[in-house]
Amino acid sequence: MSNSFIIGQYVPGSSIVHRLDPRTKITIIFFFVIIIFFANNLLSYGVLAFFALLSMFTTKIKISYILKGLKPVWFIVIFTFILHLLVTKDGEVLFSIFSFEVYSGALYKGLEISLRFTLLILMTSLLTLTTTPISITDGVESMLNPLRKIHFPVHELALMMSISLRFIPTLMQETEKISKAQASRGVDFRTGKMKERIKAVVPLLVPLFVSAFKRAEELAMAMEARGYNGGEGRTKFRELKLQRVDAFIFIFSALILVVFFFTRV
Amino acid sequence: MRNNSKVLFLVEIAIFSALAYLLDELSGFLTGRFWPQGGSVSIGMLPIFIMAYRWGIKGGLLTGFLFGGLQLILGQPWIATPVQAFLEYFVAFTVVGLAGVFAKQIQQGLLNGNAKKWVSYIILGTLIGGLLRFICHFVAGIVFFAEYAPEGTPVVLYSLGYNGGYMSISTGICIVLLFLLMPALPKKYVASK
Fold first, then answer.
1. What is the value of pTM for the model shown?
2. CATH number of the domain at B3-190, out of 2.40.240.50, 3.90.228.20, 1.25.40.10, 1.10.1760.20?
3. Residue B16: its chain A contacts at CB < 8 A?
4. Distance CA B35, CA B79 (A)
């Protein structure tokens, strides 16, 4: 069960993309996701594709690995592409297969949609591939910090996120232990009708939930004992600091953005 | 004492969000990954409901919100348009927590052994949570396909069928599991006070 279960997509590495501050990466991807909807010709898509591919190669993660991660996405990309070929009837007839005519507008639209979707998924994947979940949390916390002024519980949310991330592996082990214990008593989760399988999960869920409640109690008590009382004046073990690379990448991305707006029609 | 229950609240919600993520990942044994475009029959909502019925609306909303966030940073993100991503990752799971409107009635029913009361309110609360989440995925689906599918595709119908399918089964399974689980949990974990 746990062998195939890897938490998150993070691939350790020491590339420039890996070393960037999470805030830099989040900001760039945030703008990328919005700006891609402004692309309106081949050249402007080309600029964005260039940026995405450049980022991908810079991570030094095996391309085959990245593409494998995008597997569930290929289906929808190909599906929408074919759908466009079948339905859209703009422009002139390019060629016909079995008396079915493919229009140039359909081909263009289909390619555009597929390209946009692929680029979006690729860029967002690069964030989770090169950044640990915990540094994404730290980054988001630091970026949302101004919201504390309006009493938005930024610190509490980030703390809870860190606790969640910390406990996923622990709870995973717990689940495995309980399911083995129950399996040894003859509980079968994997075969039988849906109804029987649902019934079989109960002896797994009850101890799992009870132990989660107990862990929460213990952790809360431990935090209390150490005098935890909210975010005010709390120091951090991992401090985020913008480096020169971040400035460089920011300027580079801004230049790409300028070029992008010149290529639009 | 009041402070203690606040820390316990934070920690419990955090751990149950982790549990939600875990159960969601392990739900494959129910139907396999049949839904190719994200979403599938899953018992991931179960911890959200349990927190909603223990701590009320606030607990439910927070558990759902964190669960959505965990999926965004740990999973394969499905960001097709900004609106769709916001709806599917932040709003959809958060609104499940609104099931907590009936927290008081369910707790009273369970503590007083009034089976009719807690059973009916659990059905009601869970249906509301499931329905609200479905609406989010449904709207996100329309936004998604309006952007990506050619004009003239029956977008509304497709989103209804696709999201309605797995959401109705998941909600049904959650209701059944809550019937079996809630009475089995120690009483001190049922109510927050």
1. 0.88
2. 1.10.1760.20
3. 212, 216
4. 17
